[in-house]
Amino acid sequence: MINKINDVLIIGHKGASSITPENTLKAFQKAIELRADYVEFDIHVTKDGEIVIIHDSDTFNTTGVKGMIRDMTLEQIKNLDAGEGEKIPTLRELISIARKKMGLQIEIKSTNLLDKLIYILKEENLLSTSIVSCFMLDELLKLKLLEPSVKVGLLLPAELVRPKLIKRKIVKIAKNNFYSFHPHYSIIDKEIVDFTHSYGLKVIVWTVNDREIMETLIEIGVDGIITDDISLANEVFGR
Predict the structure, then answer these.
(1) What is the total count of domains within the chain?
(2) What's the whole-number average pLDDT of the chain?
């Protein structure tokens, strides 16, 4: 079944990261202004147990200062500049500006934060509206055991191109009641999309910043497109 274009989700990659410092409150606020359906972002946990939003386990690429998130307190992390004077935000800070304005697609980047994540999503009443994704299948399986109601999606690397292996992954996650399948856009076609849909899974592709590719993905029936360029997606979608 081909989706209507209005049913396809526009998901801002690290916020509106083509025009603002990625994974910052400024980027997320801009994504809200551009009316993204969801925002995709990466989470790690600090030494003192706070969930923060940053792509790498090291602060260097984001701030120019070396340091491992797991070895730093939130106070230490908040002293760093993530670009244009922005700070590395916490998950709760993002929730405070995004609530009822856009959905959250949370990518787990470290292995010791599942209990804390579930606690926050439950407390904030966001379990039913958030999607939790990860490249680590074992982490997602643990998450489903801890909280069966959470929507989880398996991220698939661009290097995994063999259709048989891709379909095997799809079958496995469907059997474990996953919500979605998140391949790199370059490794899928209509056959893979239809196969995924036949198992009741959504197809959310990453990371697409090209008009023609977006148009093709809409035609073959994907359910969501992760992009750095929300404005371009709005143009393609006619929104």
Answers:
(1) 1
(2) 97
